Automatic annotation (TrEMBL):
PANTHER family: 6-PHOSPHOFRUCTO-2-KINASE DOMAIN-CONTAINING PROTEIN, 6-PHOSPHOFRUCTO-2-KINASE/FRUCTOSE-2,6-BISPHOSPHATASE
Ranges where the record places region Disordered: 1-34, 264-285, 397-421
Keyword flag Glycoprotein: no
Residue ranges constituting the ACT domain according to the UniProt record: 53-127
Origin species: Hondaea fermentalgiana
Protein name in UniProt: 6-phosphofructo-2-kinase/fructose-2,6-bisphosphatase 2
Length: 847
């Protein structure tokens, strides 16, 4: 397009791809809208279709606008309005589309992939320059009431006066004994579910919903029937309704007004503005009369019975609540049902996986926020999301380094009364959050930004939610710890590791950190707002989840539950060599066989002689490693090793590896810290209560179900504590290579070069014919990973090369897409031990 030549031209309408029966621009919507049948979304499931506004910022180049519009059209979406405005080298395009809720993220992603498109978002403008323009999208409240004088006044007064919500536009229609009212209200930070409930409490009000009428009760609400659709369905006189609808559907030029206003906003960082005119999406160019007719005639019931049943509602022949008569369920008058629906609606909205998510850490200093953030990031990256931490402290320190100021920010700097300190901290938070949101906006795939700061006041958290609006969902994770002993350890860990205390005397650093914490305590407000949050108490000994659905509930929450700071080792071994292997008869182990492709081994075979010997060495190694607890036992342990292994046995000395020396005793002097801090979980009981030494210890032992793995595990556990059992876990079975299962990769290359080439190009996502990809393996192994993370005792996993590679990618923090490159040798032991900061170290043992 030629907008570059005329950056200031006025708005204009574009033609959407023409499809029979569909309006091509808002101006076409007028008289035809009620006659056109709804072409899409007529599945038995009746997907929740609504008009959404897609705001696209794109480069002003010839053909791009048409390309974007055509791409949306080819997605099979009904475009009901399409307007654009050029500003400088950018074009701001507003497309109103009919869309099912679960499609929205995919559409945004699809549009953002078009070269030249800077950003696409639903209902808000943002540009790739990091500036965020926000249209505070007004909300539509639809109220149905008995047609009694004075009700409307009461509702309006409740909304504006009692609840303090600005009414921007209001239209009312009455039909017989019913009145239908639409309020477009300013979308401020409200609990809208409660607002609707409050409106429903007004005498004679039958229902109040956000954005849809539910005049006929549950049935229509489930189908999300719009006002004009509903009325045209239940009255003979559609004309007057049509005029009401037309009142709501503004002229096409109004959409451009938004663009104009939005595009000409000053480009200040974080600036947002609300347009003075609200332009609701034009009404659907279709009537639901046909939908209703079809649904009724096909089932005899108007709505999905399963859905109603799930709400505990029973069908009845007819209902006096039903405006249109016919077979409806008992309707919407009772508050309890309205409430159920509200909650269900809200839940439905939150259950979708947001493709962009901000996780906001909350908590006093030294509670484990950064630790938790690092863990989460590792996990999310492993699950193939883009995840990044934005630590406000780092931004603060960077600013200090770049200014004249010297020295560390001491406790006084963190006092609320310290204006300079407060300003600097807010600036650091600004920059951190702005970078975070920019990172999310730029990301083409699922992305999570973790905002790591104390975020200790409601005001701060409200600001974050506000900034993220239109860009990402927000979930808070509050880390709470009031266990004095744990706190003491945390303080020490903090002063020893945080750059804030570098070069300071430890005692002085501790007292400064304590004073800093007190400063934060004075203003700290626990998360109690009506937002999505998870609270972790005292190292996950208790957790609280509020409004956690979708991915957060399915994945992040179980993962968070598994986290702890214990230092137990985790061992990985590949199952011993199977008996039918090419080399099973060999007596020695040539080094080049370490990475032998295991595919040709029969899945049903048991251990070969060499495999058997490896398992026995493993048993002895573990016995020794788990038995030795501290230096006092070392001598005993060594003689025990000799005794067990016999002369000349090939056992490397595992002493000090599994329970390597940790700072387990702290004695810092006379300021209340002089107690001896014993890291109990880092050491293990050596003697039983009766004073006898316990040889061996309980450990978690997980094995794949293949015979060679199970046998390895059975032998490995034979010398450790009798209460250890081998848990067979099919999730640890090898990558399923489908019909290529028994072939080595070399053989596959020869036999199926096409597949091999594709696999080489995309080894992570390319699926073996009839089998799995590495990506599938990540999904399969997620529960196993969580199981391993939550163990407080040492853990041994006997599995196969592919699974171990995928699990190691997590522990090593390696890109999971490159897991197949991790070397996992046969007949060796891999030990993973946690570090205090939340990551892991790896060692390999020749045993
Ligand atoms: N859930 C938790 N509860 C208590 N302490 C924890 C938790 N998670 C980690 N820690 C410990 O807290 C200490 C301080 O952690 P850090 O993440 O630096 O704190 P923060 O970021 O809150 O200042 C670390 O030694 C870590 O082991
Ligand atoms: O912006 P607020 O919420 O104060 O949080 C950031 C502050 O939190 C602290 C608290 O100690 O974080 P961190 O421990 O991660 O370094 C400070 O460094 C940082 O300035």
């Amino acid at each position: 397009m030629d907008a570059a030549e005329d950056g200031n031209r006025s708005s204009r309408s574009l033609s959407a791809p023409t499809r029979p029966g569909l309006a091509s621009s808002p101006s076409d919507l007028g008289s035809s809208m009620f006659e056109k049948p709804l072409e899409r979304g007529l599945s038995a499931e009746m997907p929740h279709v609504s008009v959404q506004r897609l705001c696209i910022v794109e480069e002003d180049r010839a053909g791009l606008l048409a390309e974007v519009t055509t791409r949306i059209g080819t997605l099979g979406l009904n475009i009901v309005g399409n307007t654009c405005k050029a500003r400088g080298h950018l074009v701001f395009q507003v497309v109103d589309i009919e869309v099912a809720h679960d499609q929205t993220a995919a559409i945004v992603a699809e549009v953002e992939q078009i070269p030249g498109v800077r950003s696409a978002s639903l209902g808000a403008f943002n540009s790739s320059t990091g500036k965020i323009y926000r249209e505070t999208a007004p909300l539509r409240l639809c109220v149905v009431n008995e047609n009694v004088p004075g009700v409307l006044g009461k509702v309006a007064s409740l909304i504006e006066v009692d609840l303090g919500i600005k009414i921007l536009a209001q239209v009312n229609r009455s039909r017989g004994d019913r009145a239908f009212n639409v309020f477009d209200v300013k979308n401020t930070d409200n609990n809208w579910v409660n607002v609707c409930l409050r409106v429903e409490e007004v005498e004679h009000v039958l229902s109040c919903t956000m954005g849809n009428f539910k005049a006929g009760g549950l049935a229509e609400t489930v189908m999300t029937t719009r006002d004009e659709d509903y009325l045209s369905d239940v009255t003979d006189d559609a004309l007057s309704v049509k005029s009401a609808a037309q009142t709501f559907a503004r002229s096409p030029s109004t959409a451009a007004t938004i663009v104009e206003e939005t595009a000409s906003l000053p480009e200040e960082e974080g600036e947002s503005a609300s347009p003075s005119v609200f332009v609701p999406p034009p009404p659907r160019p279709a009537s639901s009369a046909s939908i209703m007719a079809r649904v009724k005639s096909s089932s005899g019931l108007p709505v999905r019975p399963a859905f109603a049943a799930s709400l505990g509602l029973t069908p009845v022949g007819s209902s006096s609540n039903s405006v249109g008569g016919g077979d409806y369920y008992h309707g919407s008058r009772e508050t309890s049902r309205s409430r159920t629906l509200m909650i269900m609606n809200e839940r439905g909205a939150l259950t979708k996986d947001a493709s962009k998510l901000v996780i906001v850490m909350v908590g006093l200093p030294a509670r484990g926020k950064s630790f938790t953030a690092r863990k989460l990031k590792r996990f999310l990256c492993w699950r193939n999301s883009r995840a990044r931490i934005f630590n406000a402290g780092k931004y603060r320190r960077e600013r200090r380094n770049s200014t004249e100021s010297t020295g560390n920010d001491n406790a006084n700097f963190f006092e609320k009364s310290n204006e300079e300190g407060s300003r600097v901290r807010q600036e650091a938070a600004n920059r951190a959050l702005s970078d975070l949101l920019h990172f999310l906006q730029k990301s083409k795939q699922t992305a999570v930004g973790i905002f790591d700061a104390t975020n200790s006041t409601i005001e701060r958290r409200r600001w974050i939610v506000d900034q993220a609006k239109g860009i990402a969902s927000v979930c808070f994770i509050e880390v709470i710890c009031d266990d004095e002993e744990v706190l003491l350890e945390n303080l020490l860990s903090k002063v020893r590791n945080s750059p804030d205390f570098m070069g300071m005397d430890e005692r002085q650093a501790l007292s400064d950190l304590r004073a800093r914490i007190e400063a934060y305590e004075r203003v700290y407000e626990p998360v109690d707002e009506d937002v999505s949050y998870i609270k972790i108490y005292n190292m996950s000994s208790k957790m609280l989840a509020n409004k956690i659905y979708g991915r957060l509930a399915r994945s992040i929450l179980p993962y968070m539950l598994s986290l702890h700071v214990g230092l137990r080792p985790i061992y990985f071994v590949r199952a011993g060599l199977a008996e039918d292997s090419r080399i099973s008869s060999m007596k020695h182990w040539p080094a080049e066989f370490d990475f032998l492709d295991p595919s040709t081994e029969s899945k049903a075979s048991g251990l070969s002689q060499l495999g058997h010997e490896f398992a026995q060495r493993l048993a002895r190694w573990l016995q020794t490693a788990l038995w030795v607890r501290d230096d006092e036992d070392a001598d005993d342990a060594e003689s025990f090793v000799e005794e067990q292994a016999g002369e000349g046995a090939h056992i490397s000395n595992p002493l000090g590896s599994a329970f390597k020396s940790m700072p387990n005793l702290v004695d810092v002097g006379a300021d209340g810290l002089s107690e001896r801090i014993f890291h109990s979980e880092r050491r293990r009981e050596v003697r039983k209560a009766d004073g006898t030494r316990q040889r061996g210890a309980v450990m978690k032992l997980l094995s794949s179900t293949l015979p060679r793995a199970k046998q390895t595990a059975d032998i490995a556990k034979s010398l450790i504590d009798g209460s250890t059992v081998v848990e067979l876990c099919p999730m640890l079975n090898p990558l399923n290579k489908g019909e290529l299962g028994s072939l080595s990769m070399d053989a596959i290359q020869k036999l199926n070069p096409d597949f091999y080439e594709s696999w080489k190009r995309h080894p992570y996502t390319h699926r073996f014919p009839g089998g799995e990809s590495y990506l599938d393996l990540v999904t399969r192994l997620e529960p196993v990973l969580i199981e391993i993370e939550q163990q407080t005792a040492p853990c041994l996993i006997v599995s196969h090369v592919s699974c171990i590679q995928v699990l190691l990618a997590y522990f090593l923090g390696a890109p999971v897409e490159e897991a197949m490159k991790i070397k996992v040798p046969l007949h060796k032991l891999i030990e993973i031990t946690p570090t205090l900061g939340g990551s892991w170290e790896m060692k390999e043992y020749e045993i």
